[in-house]
Specification:
Helix content: 25-40%
Strand content: 15-25%
Number of helices: 3
Low-confidence stretches: none
Shape: globular
Strand order of the largest sheet: 3-2-1-4
Distance between the termini: 28 Å
Length: 97
């Protein structure tokens, strides 16, 4: 069976991290913490641990391209078949029926 993971690249907003976990099943979610903000890094890491969400802390130089490249590198080294990259400020919501 093919596997898809949603990689949410987050750098400064804990509410965005929590929002992704609200709408994406935790077993399908990977939080990528790419920031120079040590307080956010700690908060986001603690939240992911408390909620049992797969997460990684990647090295940041403050540019968006480095963050995106870190997601691609994580995906390449994984066993997942497909990846969906979500920026921290993006919204993934269920359909309205």
């Amino acid at each position: 069976m093919k596997t898809v993971k949603f990689y949410a690249l987050c750098c400064r907003n804990l509410n965005a991290v929590k929002r992704h976990a609200q709408y994406i099943p935790k077993e399908d979610l990977v939080i990528v913490i790419n920031t120079q903000d040590e307080e956010f890094k700690t908060q986001a890491t603690d939240y992911c641990i408390e909620e049992s969400i797969e997460h990684y802390i990647t090295e940041s130089d403050g540019t968006p391209s480095t963050g995106k490249n870190s997601v691609f590198n994580l995906f390449k080294s994984s066993d997942y078949d497909y990846a969906v990259l979500i920026d921290g400020d993006d919204f993934v919501t269920p359909s309205i029926k």
